[in-house]
Amino acid sequence: MKKQTRKQKKKQKQKILIKRAIKIICLLFAIIIIYNIIKGITKENESEELIQAFAQNSKILETVEKTPFAKVSRYIVYGTHFNIEGSLELPENTSQIQNVEVIAKNLAGEEVIIDSEYTYNDNLIEFTTLSKINTGLDLESLQVTDYYILLKVIYSNEEEKYYSLENNTEYGEINYYTLTRNNSNNKIYINFSKAQDIPFLGFNITKSKLPKDVYDVVIDPGHGGNDGGAVSGNHIEADIVLDCALDLKEKLENIGLKVLITRDGTESSEEYTANNMYDEDGRVTLANKSGAKILISLHLNSNEVKLSAGGVEVYAPTNSNLDFAKTLAENIVDNANTNYSQMETYKEEEGVYVREIDISKRNNSVAYNSNSYKGIFDTVPYLYIIRETGGIATGAYVDGSSPGYSENIYRNSNVGVESYLIELGYMNVRKDLNNILQNSDLYVEAIVKSVKEFYGID
Ligand SMILES: [Zn+2]
């Protein structure tokens, strides 16, 4: 081996150092490039959305009248449906009207007609899609694009004009997440905005995942804590429905749904009394802030007047389409080998009940001892878990002015959970109690089947 001179050694060292420096610089460049690519992708998505939104604005807003605009007095998301009402003042000497439709129009120009009613007097159109709180625009059926809610007026001379909507309410944006299907959700951003001097109500729909605090379904096992509910021998309603609820949670999760339970048996005996259901961790508050679309509350019945036939009763919200309640009752009767309850009070259909109360006549009772119910419906669902989880759609009204009841801070919400209360059977009817104790899985399977069937979840 040739002996290296000092000079040569020095040169070699320098070479190695330069090589190392180049390597480090290259690595730094690579990191900067990768960082910028990632940054670029996110930026590109953002700007793409903006460009898309702008394109849609110009395209759809070009087709609407520059004036007047319809004034929205109310808009509500209840369960999986969107509803709206308001008015449009047309100029004097407007020609006769043939029809008025509330539509959702997307970028492709497709129109979804939302079932609505209208009146027309003295150039004023008043419209509503709210004949039922759980029908209207099915948010689960919308495509991943942008929609605009418009009023379409068809005049007697066949002329069609589109009118944009202006917000005349105290409410702002709504973020709605569709039910989880195949591990995927759509986020629907509902907001009033303005472009080209035209106010509009737009839905921006993107593919999304459920945020940490948003759920699909809430299960509410009735009673709990120091409230056992109905008792028969040594059987306690709160315990039986908790077992069913935990099983239901697991089975709904098995079909991919994200489920919140309002109690899991670990609650202390001071919790879940009648008085704290509106507290921060109370079942009404938990349900309201869950972002869930459906709530199912499980109970067992008991009656002094012994209805020997027992059977199932599904309680549904006021002013609602009863199809899901009917599906629940039918499937439970079929699958769990039970029968519809024979109780006739509040009965709407076989096994389906709507328990309303005229609160103006009940202001002597503690829960109704409140002056704040002015302006809500005359009749509201009596059962608080249905009424107080629906916000303005169901006429929630517990405002904290009644002694012993804290405030339902969501009572004025324009987003509500569609809630059902199921009385699986009668504790004091031997046949029912035995069936529920031995075959609770058949009841639970019937509820899961109903959710799958009705909401189209595989
Ligand atoms: Zn109960």
Can you characterise this structure?
- This protein is of the alpha+beta class and 458 residues long.
- The protein folds into two domains: 70-208, Immunoglobulin-like (Sandwich), CATH 2.60.40; 217-455, Aminopeptidase.
- It contains six helices and 25 strands.
- The strands form five sheets. Strands 1, 2, 5, 6, 7, 10 and 24 form a seven-stranded mixed β-sheet that branches. Strands 3, 4, 8, 9, 11, 12 and 13 form a seven-stranded antiparallel β-sheet that branches. Strands 17-14-18-25-19-21-20 form a seven-stranded mixed β-sheet.
- A hairpin with a 4-residue loop joins strand 3 and strand 4.
- The termini are far apart.
- The model is unreliable at 362-378 (pLDDT under 50).
- The protein binds zinc ion.
- Zinc ion binds at residues 222-223, 229, 237, 299.
Note the topology:
Blueprint: H1 6-61, E1 70-78, E2 81-89, E3 97-106, E4 111-114, E5 117-121, E6 124-128, E7 137-138, E8 146-155, E9 160-163, E10 165-167, E11 174-177, E12 185-195, E13 198-208, E14 217-221, E15 231-232, E16 235-236, H2 237-254, E17 259-261, H3 283-289, E18 294-301, E19 313-315, H4 323-335, E20 347-349, E21 352-353, E22 356-358, E23 379-381, H5 384-387, E24 415-416, E25 418-426, H6 430-455
Parallel strand pairs: 1-10, 1-24, 14-17, 14-18, 18-25, 19-21
Antiparallel strand pairs: 1-2, 2-6, 2-7, 3-4, 3-8, 5-6, 8-9, 8-13, 11-12, 12-13, 15-16, 19-25, 20-21, 22-23
This protein binds zinc ion (ZN).
